[in-house]
Amino acid sequence: MSFYVFADGTANLPKQLLDGINLLPCSYLVNDNSVTYTGDIDDFDGHEYYEGLKNGNKIKTSLLNTALFLEHFTKIAIEGGSIIYIAMSSGISGTYNAAVAAANELMEEYPDCFIHIVDSHGCGFGNGILALKAAKLSKEGVDCREAAKILDADVPHACQYFTVDDLNFLKNTGRVSGVTAQIGTILNIKPILFGDSTGHIISCGKVRGRKNAIKAILNKYSEKRMEDGDQTVCISHGDCLEDANLLADMIREVNPKADITICQHEPFSGAHVGPGMLGLFFWGNER
Q1: Which DSSP helix (H) or strand (E) runs through 76?
Q2: From the CA atom positions of the chain, what is the Rg in Å?
């Protein structure tokens, strides 16, 4: 490996995909009780978590701070090593800025090291697929500075589309108004959301009914996907595995070459999108 690759719990990655990726631990509060999360999605009980949200559990998440990055990066910096960290979108979290501050501090103190922070403009598998790409580049022996350029250029091609089952979770985070959430719930309106080029989550459509929402996400895949190159496709869900499997089957009909991974959706952004979230992440021609 030519450089160290770091990600964290928001990357949504299961054990079988973690080769060459170092995960930073995260924590969050459930009803004021602290939960430490290793970052490995296989260690996350998604059913219990999303059932808890349905039953009124209050989740409080926080950014990874500069001290945490210094703790994990300093030894490598002292040895003159190179690091790439794939961060959650700066549009929804201050984690990216905290990581940049740590990188700048270490590179000033240890000028032989090189640390690059990739702003994924995404969350969940939206930064996870970039971490997978980074690990692949490192295993291939690509120089860290060159890999940093490649990954930054790849960010606009890391597509992410999702829908939610309950608009009230988006209302609680200010993504939709209370009136919109109420009307949408009554009329069974499902939004189609995506991470835009600035890393903010915005709506790109709305449909009536869950099945139509799944079809709308599939249509985005058909429209945006790359015909050649990396065929990695990741699906995350807020404890709705049946819908995730249905979407996977539909994707295979469109693209039999798709290499599909299905997981529960990680707890950090999961608190904001709620039970029934269904997300699709893939490499596309554009977002």
Answers
A1: helix 66-78
A2: 19
Is the confidence at residue 171, as pLDDT, over 80?
no
Angstrom distance (rounded) from CA 286 to CA 178: 32
Question: Which residue carries 């990600």 as its tokens?
Answer: 7
Tokens of 262: 């299905």
The domain 4-155: what is its CATH number?
Answer: 3.40.50.10170
Interval 36-72: pLDDT, tens: 888 889 889 999 999 999 999 999 988 899 999 999 9
> How far apart, in Å, are the Cα atoms of 172 and each of 117, 274, 277, 284?
30, 10, 15, 31
Task: Say if residue 204's pLDDT is above 60.
Answer: yes
Do 184 and 167 meet the contact criterion of CB atoms below 8 Å apart?
Answer: yes
Average pLDDT over residues 241-256: 98
Q: Is domain 157-283 in CATH 3.30.1180.10, yes or no?
A: yes
The full set of domain ranges for the chain reads 4-155, 157-283
Q: Residue 169, CB half-sphere, CA atoms under 13 Å: how many? A: 25
Judged by DSSP in three states, 233 sits in strand
